[in-house]
Amino acid sequence: MSLRFRLICLVLSAPLAVAACRPLDLTPVEGPAAPASATSPPAAPSPTPAVSPSPLPPTSTPAVTPLPTLPRTLATVPPTAAPVLGEVPADLMARLRADVEAQSGGPAASLELIRAEAMTWSDGSLGCPQPGMFYTQALEEGYWVVWRAPDGREYDYRLTQRGAFVLCPGPRPRPAGDLPATVTPLQP
């Protein structure tokens, strides 16, 4: 609405607001009053009926029950041994399989697939930033694939949906079954 229209509405509604705020005169009106003559004594004012407010029903305040307090401790949850599998397209998995065979020097059949899942990375580094590199600062849809070799080395691949991938940060030894525990808060 325009400022002019608002101003007109305010000016026109002001007398109504003032009239609504005045107390009501509850004296009964008996018709036109006769002009008072100088010789007759003034008429006594008619008694006004006393208006008593109607009693309100008693209100009861509801009982306030305090909320139970939850423990503010952290629980250690053991990691799951089940890998996340099956979300990466087959053509991208074939390209990664060829690369991991070249990196590990052995057939892909000897490698254990630990993780293969869709991810939304927080930036163009795909969760694997390299020193001295600049990355796009936008969400990047992609995948996370990890293979483990029989010698315990893991090959951690990060992919975009378009198929670009990076091995993050090179094969690193990790004993099989040595997964760190995950800490999960019980209460936010």
Helix-strand layout with pairing:
Elements: H1 3-21, E1 74-77, H2 90-104, E2 112-121, E3 140-148, E4 153-160, E5 165-173, E6 182-185
Antiparallel strand pairs: 1-6, 2-3, 3-4, 4-5
Helices, by number, come to 2
Q: Mean pLDDT across all residues, rounded?
A: 73
Series of H and E elements: HEHEEEEE
Which percent range fits the helix content?
10-25%
**Helix/strand-derived class?**
alpha+beta
**Strand neighbour order, sheet with most strands:** 2-3-4-5
Strand content: 15-25%
Question: Mind explaining what this structure looks like?
Answer:
With about 190 residues, this protein is of the alpha+beta class. The chain has a domain at about 75-175. The chain has helices at about 5-20, 90-105, and strands at about 75, 110-120, 140-150, 155-160, 165-175, 180-185. A four-stranded antiparallel beta sheet has the order 2-3-4-5, with helices on one face. It is elongated, with a radius of gyration of 41 Å. The protein starts with a helix and ends with a strand.
List keywords for this structure.
188 residues; alpha+beta; four-stranded antiparallel sheet; two-stranded antiparallel sheet; 6 strands
